[in-house]
Design brief:
Elements lengths: L3 E2 L17 H30 L7 H29 L6 H33 L11 H25 L15 E2 L6 H35 L8 H32 L5 H11 L5 H8 L2 H8 L5
Length: 305
């Protein structure tokens, strides 16, 4: 997950970022995607922050969602800089900041995946009655656990940036950013990428199979309108987390298997697959909408339900 091109200074005539057969189309797709992600994600963060004030702060699930809000917020701060670069194809903010903005999209993706997995595991423990409820004893414990996760994440990210990010390739001073090249040709970088791809695919398939089993088991013991049962709606929320992983994260990792071996003329496709991962920022907005009473009443009134 490393290897984005960056430069220390901006040249007068930067190398074009979009070089495919339809550069304007690629540019428009990325700008529209990141614009929707930015505004939708910001609305979701604000709305969910209001909800969290009324929730049990000792719950592990609540703590994971709080961290998810922070993670989305940090990434959304960097989105305007991506939009500026895609619109102008010129990077004017320096190489260090380019590293930060480049790395944040991967930092956000893998940390979001981690919080999703934590939430899903907690829900499975409760469903199978291995735990009546999973809570911290004190708010201090929740804060300490969150800090430990973030410290570990930042240490990992900083290590990657210092050791690999833009260090292994021979890049020209062309005023561009977010451009993968030579790093992915090195075996250590390939090994890290392949390991992450396999780990995410196995974890996703396991969670999906487990969730399908849980939902089928719930539906067998319920009678009447299944939408009227809170237990069924709760399991649909868990399924929604898995669907986000499948839709937002798996396409990028599947494409990456091919991209690592065939990097020529695939830069635009790689940027598009990365932009899909950021759609996960809309999860909080979706929860706010589907969690409203009016939405539930509308769904329950459908004839098929």
């Amino acid at each position: 997950f490393v290897g984005e091109n960056f430069t220390d200074n901006c040249s007068t005539h930067p190398e074009p970022f979009f070089t495919g057969p339809h550069p304007i189309v690629w540019k428009s797709i990325l700008i529209v995607t990141y614009t929707v992600v930015f505004f939708g994600g910001a609305c979701g963060v604000i709305k969910m922050s209001v909800f969290l004030m009324k929730m049990n702060t000792l719950s592990v699930t609540t703590t994971a969602i709080v961290n998810l809000v922070v993670n989305h917020s940090l990434f959304l701060v960097t989105v305007p800089f991506r939009l500026y670069f895609y619109a102008t194809e010129t990077w004017i903010f320096g190489s260090t900041f380019c590293k930060i903005v480049s790395g944040m999209i991967y930092f956000h993706m893998y940390l979001t995946f981690l919080f999703y997995v934590i939430i899903l595991i907690i829900r499975c423990l409760v469903f199978f009655q291995w735990k009546d409820k999973v809570e911290f004893y004190r708010n201090l414990h929740a804060v300490a656990m969150s800090i430990a996760i973030w410290i570990l994440a930042f240490i990992t990210q900083v290590t990657v940036i210092l050791c690999w990010y833009g260090k292994l390739g021979d890049y020209k001073d062309n005023g561009t950013c977010f451009k993968f090249q030579e790093e992915l040709k090195h075996e250590p970088v390939k090994a890290v990428n392949y390991t992450l791809i396999v780990l995410i695919m196995i974890t996703t398939c396991t969670l999906l199979g487990l969730q399908v089993f849980i939902i089928s088991k719930v539906m067998k013991k319920l009678s009447g309108s299944i939408w009227s049962h809170q237990e069924f709606r709760a399991q649909l929320k868990s399924l929604f987390f898995i669907l986000i992983i499948i839709f937002c994260f798996l396409p990028h990792h599947c494409f990456r298997l091919y991209y690592i071996k065939n990097m020529t003329n695939l830069q635009e496709y790689n940027e598009f697959s990365l932009s899909i991962t950021t759609i996960s920022c809309l999860d909080l907005f979706s929860f706010a909408v589907t969690g409203s009473k009016a939405f539930r009443q509308t769904i329950c009134s459908l004839p098929c339900c």
